[in-house]
Design brief:
The protein is an alpha+beta fold. It contains 14 helices and 27 strands. The chain has a domain of about 230 residues: Dipeptide-binding Protein, Domain 3 (Dipeptide-binding Protein, domain 3), CATH 3.10.105. About 55% of the residues are buried.
Length: about 575
């Protein structure tokens, strides 16, 4: 999956998480296997889990750390958070983490917002150094003022971090220049909090790029950087100085798999005991029929993922609004989705960039008008000065409507999606050329630098706070001048949309925020900045040799490995 962590809001799923649902499609499917049984467990033991992707680096605030898998495997298990995300009935909600002595306090002073954090005395780093205000101050400064930062949303609205008891004190006060509705996602979530005593005044990026030896979670990298063997494995061992529940297992190793087919074979052979697979078509029937001695958790209706066709608005031919609109009318998105997932009851395209876990936030039907209409394609293209050549491809000024189409290499489902899109687009007069890339190259370099025309990938929420500002506000366009920081990889520049997009981040009333998002959704759709395609439900499979209170619960934000410290193996 990839974290194009939709900013504080969103993780880029390169994984394209599985779309397995009950054949009839409806509700979430949770088959918890051994969960809740009275089962004897062994003390210790080593667990091996299949992984579909490794991060490009482990400096979580840098653009190279855009992989969701990096967060699921390492960041969420080693970096401290002010808030956890937990299930409350049918909903997922924020809960103050065990790192805090009390619930953070939020107050409004005039037009400004103040949030006060009080850290518990028991909260320490793995070297026993207390977590203090200095860590909040350092984290904020690095994100707000640093270069090559994955996303500064929210942090750039903080004017200062004060330490009323000194930097070694346990109280941190954050002063915002204006209200920021998503404040709970800061100092945690996708980035975590960084250790000032180890990193201040040093080259953070160099220290963390290839792994690090510190932790304030239940796990740490085995031997520090040596716990990450690139292109092979990532190994975690218990953090003996963690203040909460320490892991029962001796070791967890994430073993990189060549592809989903190899991942399934490794799982069925018992080489790996848990997988978080992509929705490759040849695996769908097998999973639906059931795999012996396997538990499964399937999130079919409340997914944090949204896959789309992302257009580079600054690159020919998508630097023309008319061409973007025409391309959007060239596709029968419902037919594409049904061809991929119809057997699973998923037959309708998404018509919003807001994930289904957000419900009806914004306008879920903003892009519904973009249905296949070849007459409309002709009208728009001809009106923009294009004419079809003898080969049936649009041309203008001696240049053809030739589009390089990228996604992650080796993903059979995405490759099939490309084939379907290529066929439909060709009938409408667009020539698509497939040029798929390694995940690290695509997400770590090419997309931020604008080295693409059309890309297929998914955005994944990294918090429960709804926002699309990081993706579409013009000031978040990465450039050479800002060291290619920012997540507006589509180079969307719609001045009228900036205000409502930013209002979603500042309004305190959820309905007001939803109304602002709906206004922005309408403008994004009119501009055809990019095109929503399908939701990607998550699926987690594990051997019933794994025992634990929540081993079958896939946290939609923190992923399925968030509670591994409570897992054990059958005796």
């Amino acid at each position: 999956m990839r974290r194009q962590r939709r900013s504080m809001q969103l993780l880029a799923l390169i994984l394209g998480l599985s779309i397995i649902a009950a054949a009839c499609g409806g509700d979430d499917d949770d088959d918890s296997g051994s969960k809740g049984e009275e089962t004897k467990t062994q003390t210790g033991g080593d667990l091996v889990i299949g992984a579909e992707q490794f991060p490009d680096c482990m400096d979580w605030i840098a653009s190279c750390a855009g992989s969701s898998w990096g967060s699921w495997m390492v960041s969420y298990n080693t970096m401290p958070n002010s808030f956890d995300i937990v299930k409350d009935g049918d909903d997922w909600v924020y809960e103050t983490s065990s790192m805090m002595a009390e619930d953070p306090e939020i107050t409004t002073e005039g037009d400004k917002q103040v949030v006060t954090y009080v850290i518990d005395d028991k909260a320490v780093w793995s070297d026993k150094t207390p977590i203090t205000c200095a860590d909040y101050l350092y984290t904020w400064d690095q994100i707000k003022n640093g270069d090559d930062i994955y996303d500064k949303t929210g942090y750039q609205d903080i004017e200062s971090v004060e330490c009323p008891d000194g930097e070694d004190g346990k109280t941190a006060v954050t002063n915002y220049s204006k209200p920021y509705a998503g404040w709970q996602q800061l100092f945690g979530g996708q980035f975590g909090i960084f250790p000032s005593h180890l990193l201040k005044g040093k080259d953070r990026a160099a220290i963390m790029a290839n792994g690090y030896d510190f932790s304030a979670g239940p796990w740490k990298l085995d031997g520090g950087a040596s716990g990450w063997v690139k292109d092979t494995s990532i190994t975690l061992v218990p953090n003996e100085n963690y203040w909460g529940k320490k892991p029962t297992l001796d070791k967890v190793t994430f073993l990189l798999q060549a592809d989903t087919a190899a991942e399934f074979e490794a799982f069925k052979a018992g080489t790996v005991k848990a997988i978080y697979p992509q929705p490759q078509l040849d695996a769908v029937e097998e999973i639906s029929n059931g795999i012996p001695d396997t538990g499964k958790s399937i999130n079919a209706d409340h997914t944090p993922n949204a896959e789309a066709l992302w257009m580079n608005n600054a690159k020919f031919p998508f630097d023309s609004k008319a061409v973007r609109q025409a391309f959007s009318y060239s596709l029968d998105r419902d037919a594409i989705v049904e061809a991929l997932f119809g057997g699973l009851g998923v037959t309708k395209a998404m018509n919003s960039f807001n994930q289904t876990i957000l419900g009806d936030f914004g306008d879920p039907d903003a892009f519904a008008g973009y249905t296949q209409d070849l007459d409309k394609v002709d009208e728009l293209m001809e009106g923009d000065g294009w004419a079809k050549g003898s080969d049936g491809i649009w041309a203008k000024g001696g240049k053809k409507a030739e589009i390089v189409f990228k996604t992650t290499a080796g993903n059979a489902r995405r490759e099939r999606t490309q084939e379907l899109i290529l066929e439909q687009a060709k009938d409408a007069g667009f020539s698509l050329k497939i040029d798929n890339q390694a995940a690290g190259d695509l997400f770590g370099d090419q997309l931020p630098k604008g080295d693409y025309t059309l890309a297929l990938y998914a955005q994944v929420l990294t918090s429960l706070d709804p926002s699309l500002s990081s993706l579409f506000v013009s000031t978040n366009i990465p450039t050479a001048e800002n060291e290619f920081s920012g997540q507006n990889w589509t180079r969307t520049d719609i001045p009228d949309a900036d205000e409502p997009l930013l209002a979603v981040d500042t309004e305190s009333d959820r309905q007001d925020r939803s109304d602002a998002q709906a206004e922005a959704d309408k403008l994004l759709a009119e501009d055809a900045t990019s095109l929503p395609l399908d939701p990607l439900p998550n699926i987690f499979l594990w051997s019933t040799d794994i025992v634990g209170p929540e081993e079958g619960e896939d946290n939609p934000i923190f992923g399925p490995f968030h509670d591994m410290n409570e897992w054990a193996l059958k005796a």
